Each structure stands twice: as C-alpha cells, then as structure tokens.
Amino acid sequence: DAGAGDHIFYEIEAELLAEGTESDLEKIQHCLQHEWGLVPQLQTKFERALMFINASPASPAPSLNHLHPSSRSEKPRRKRSLITDQPYRNSGTEQKLAASEIKTSARPWRGSETIAETLRPRALSKKPGITNKDTMAEAARKTLYFHFKRMVSHEAGTRRGEDIEELHDMRVATRRMRAAIRVCGAYLDMKQIKPFVKQIRRAGRILGTVRDLDVFKQKAQAYLNTVPPDRQDELDPLFAVFNGQYQNARKRMLDFLDSQRYIRFKKEFEKFLKNRGAAALPAFTSRDEPVPQRIPHVLPIVLLQRLAAVRAYEDCIHARDISLERLHRLRIAFKGLRYTLEFFKEVLPQDAEQLIEELKRLQDHLGDIQDGVVTSDILRNFLTWGTWGKVQSASETIQCKPVIAPGVAAYLSVRQAELQHRVETFVSEWERLEQTGFFKRVAALVHDL
Q1: Are 361 and 436 in contact (CB under 8 A)?
Q2: Residue 81, burial from CB neighbour count under 10 angstroms (0-12, 13-18, 19+)
Q3: Which of 132, 64, 86, 134 is nearest to 278 (CA)?
Q4: Contacts of residue 396, Cβ cutoff 8 Å, sequence gap at least 6
Q5: What pLDDT is stored for residue 11 in this prediction?
Q6: How far apart are CA 100 and CA 227, in angstroms?
C-alpha cells in the first residue's frame, strides 16, 4: 500500500517497431503532445529509477517536476500529463493503464479513443475484394468489413467536428452496412448478426441527427450568402434555437462514442468480420440438397428484385399520382437498387459504373425533395411554436408562443418554392431514364454472370 508521501504515477511508452519509420514516431509524439497535452520524457525509466534509488535518505525524493525537464515551472497536471501524481491503490498485483483507459478533461479527445484513431488513417483498400467464386454470405462479410473499417477511420474526425464531411462519411459507412445486410439478408444467419445490426442502427441514428443539423446549417448559410448584407442577421432567432439543438446532439453523439457498449461493439464486430464464413447459412438442407448461395447463381434474382421494386412505381408516375410520401418511398427503392449495384460492381459488367452514376443523379433529386419537406416542417414549427420540432405535450403548447421572424418566413418561402420545382421536374427525370434505356441496361447486367 502506497505511503502518504509517495507519488504513484501512470506512464505511456511508445516503441518504434522494426518496420516503422522515424516519421511514424514523430506522428505519435505529435498526437500525445497536442491532442493529450502530455510531456515527453528525456530520461529513460531506468535512469529515473536510479535518481530515486540514489537519493539520500535525508534528502527529499526527486519531485515530479524533476522528471519533467521541459515543464519545471508548471504545476503538475492530474489528467493530461504523461506522468500524473493521481494516486491509486495497488491490490498486490501489477496494474497497468492502457492508452485507451486514460481520461482527459477536454473534448474532442475522449478516453475511449486510441492513439491510432487520432492519427490520419493508413490507406484503406478501395474495394471489398468480391469475386464470382464468393457466396452471398461471404460477399456480405467482405462488404461489411470494408465499410466497418471506414466507419472507424472517420471516428476521430467526427469527434473533432472540424470537418463535417468526416461525420458524413462515418454515417455513410453505417448506412452501407445496414444496406448490405438487407441486400444479402436472405443468405445470412440473422441470429448471429442481429446483435450487431442493433448497434449499427443506433450508431447511424445518432450520427444522422448531427449530420442532418450540419446540412440544415449549411443550406441556411448558403441562402444567407444570396441576400444583401443588411439581411445577414435575419435567421439569428432560428440559429439561437438551432445552436442549443446542435450542442445537445453533439453531446449525445460523443457520449455514445465513449460508451462501453459502442467500444465493445467495435471490438466484437471486427473480430466477427475477420472470420471467413461469418453468419453463413448451411450449404445443404436437412435433406442434403445444396442451397443456392454463390453470387453467379443468386445475384441475378436479387438484382432483378431490386429493379422490380423501382419499376413498380411506373404507373403512378405516368398517372402523375406522386405524393410526397410516395416519392420518399421511391427514393428508398432507388437506394436499394443503387446499393446492390455498388456492392457487386466488382463482378458486374463495366456498364454498372455508369448506371450507378445515373442512379445517383435521380437519387439526389429525390433527396432534395425529402430535404425540402423536412426543412419546411422545421421552419413552420419554429414560426408557430418557437421550438425545434413539434411540441410534444399540452403543457409545452401553453408555454410556447409564436415567433415573429420575417426573415425565417422568407427563408421558408424560398425552400417551399425549391421543393415545388423539384417535384414538378421529377417526372422529366424519370422519363430521361426510360428514354436512355436505363432499366433495360440494368436487366442486361445479369446476362454475363
């Protein structure tokens, strides 16, 4: 048990591996200094141990400042220094503190983040590596692992919040994983993968809340850039409410990324995805009959089903029976088709790449419509109640008052006009796809499989 006058401290030591370079070591040192605020040590642990051993009994033991030649005049830090005088009780066995367990006092650095995640990620593979010899389950595993690594690689940037595209890319990775499970779900053992699906969905929802707010602010600012200088403050009442909503959303996101549940999910899911055959169904039925699982055998069916789900809307569109809700559902169907082409483009003919680009154009059009619907609802609720989103209870209704904000009303008018234009021009976009033979070209992809 440590004496009252003893200092027990924690220390991190970074060792350069044989294949490492001096540049790698410099990156780690830069991270530890600037992200964690730690202090480099000029003496080895052995040299510092000798300093204590050689100290005479009558002389005081070397202070922590003597162990910090570069910061002797500073007060020792308790949570953000390499060596900290924060005491702990040793139970008799050696205790070690991993880098992932060190807590810091300020965000964006969080205790659950590893050093590797704070550095710029190494080059990731550009393709999942799917081949015609793979089963659908193996293709799903490769696709999931491909996007899982991308999700993790953008986590540090998402935490910092300096570039909104980092969060966007992290969220996209979660959506691609969910889509891969939907596309290949009939060929997966869902009992094995269900626990991970829940965490992927939760991550996507929490990240999506912040991402939607980022997009809202970005588009609102783009609108302000088009108005005269004397009107630049006309959305300030809206931004005042927005800022509180955004701070809360960011806090929930960081709390989630710091949670043991999320940390455990990353560890367990990566371990699961590294195993070839993960979540694969039996290759034979109970009657010993082979089950169709190989990509060339079943992808044509999967792809044509996704195509059929889109073409089911043809009659509605030609009859101009296209409500906003129906357009939203059509957008989801287009996503299913696009994701299927993207996941398997390594084994599909070259035309698949061009078809994906055409799908993106129409999907973006439908996305602008849905964004206009959501934004208009937010602006109307703000003007009616002065809140972000709908009032949830009668007591809230009594407390809320309408907001007099002509600038916000003007912005609402602009967004509704944009929405109406997008709806009116959608039919021509659909007809363009038909005229270019888009649907026939998608169906033709399966012939070469």
Answers
A1: no
A2: buried
A3: 134
A4: 385, 387
A5: 66
A6: 48
Residue 89 has what pLDDT?
35
Please name which of 177, 391, 118, 158 lies closest in space to residue 257, comparing C-alpha atoms.
158
Q: How many CB atoms lie within 10 A of CB 7?
A: 18
8 A C-beta contact, residue 188 and residue 137: yes
Q: Which ranges constitute the DSSP H helices of 55-121?
A: 115-118
SS3 294: strand
- What does the alpha-carbon distance between residue 410 and residue 405 come to, in Å, rounded to a whole number? 9
Side-chain half-sphere CA neighbours of 329 within 13 A? 11
- pLDDT tens-digit readout, 332-391: 999 999 999 999 999 999 999 999 999 999 999 999 999 999 999 999 999 988 888 766
The percent of residues in the chain predicted with pLDDT above 90, rounded, is 65
* Peptide linkage before 40 cis (omega within 30 of 0): no
* Whole-prediction pTM: 0.72
Integer Cα distance of 33 and 284 in angstroms: 57
What are the φ/ψ torsions at residue 290 (nearest 5 degrees)?
-65, 140
The Cβ-side half-sphere exposure at 223, using a 13 Å CA radius, reads 21
Tokens matching residue 152: 């993790």
Angle at 382 between CA 376 and CA 386, to 5 degrees: 175
